[in-house]
C-alpha cells in the first residue's frame, strides 16, 4: 500500500486543522478520540500517528479482520464503526486543550450522537470524558449515564503516550466493548 508520510513542515502546518468525521446511519459504535494529532491532521486520517495503537486494538478486539492502515478508515462504516473527536482541532498534545474547549466539544459531540444515533459512543480517554461531560468520578468501562440517549463506554486512550496500557490490555478493553455491541 502506498502511503506518503508527511514532512515535518507539513505536520507543523497542520495545527488547528480538522479531519472530517467518519459517521453515518446504522453505526454500532462511534469511537471518539480526544482530538486529532498534528500528524493525523496532516494526513487527513484518524489515529494516523506512528505509535498510536487504535488500529491494532480494533483488530485485537475483533472489530476488524486485520490491522487496518489509517488510510483505510473508509472501510469502517460498512463494519458498523465510525470515528469522531471530542474537539475537532488538531494540536501537538491533548493537554493543549483547556476545560472550556473540552466542554464545548462535548456539547458538539452530543449533537452528533443525537443526529446519528449509534448504538454506543466509545470515548477514548477517561480524563477527556470527565472534562467534556462533567463526570469527575468516571472510570473506564460502561457508564451509567447516556449521552444524547445513547449508551456510553469509556475506553483507554490508544496513544502511545498512555503507558498504563499495553497493546494487549488495550485490545482486551476494546474486546469487552465489542462483546456487547456486535
From TrEMBL:
- Protein name per its UniProtKB record: Mismatch-specific DNA-glycosylase
Q: Name one GO biological process term.
A: base-excision repair, AP site formation
Gene3D superfamilies listed in its UniProt record: Uracil-DNA glycosylase-like domain (3.40.470.10)
Give the molecular function GO annotations.
pyrimidine-specific mismatch base pair DNA N-glycosylase activity; uracil DNA N-glycosylase activity
Ordered alphabetically, the record's keywords are:
DNA damage, DNA repair, Hydrolase
PANTHER family for the chain? G/T AND G/U MISMATCH-SPECIFIC DNA GLYCOSYLASE, G_T MISMATCH-SPECIFIC THYMINE DNA GLYCOSYLASE
Which parts of the sequence belong to the Uracil-DNA glycosylase-like domain?
20-178
SMART domains registered for this protein in UniProt: UDG, UreE_C
Q: Which organism is it from?
A: Winogradskya consettensis
Under the heading InterPro entries, the entry gives: MUG/TDG, Uracil-DNA_glycosylase-like, Uracil-DNA_glycosylase-like_sf
On whether Isomerase is a keyword of this UniProt record, the answer is: no
Hydrolase among keywords: yes
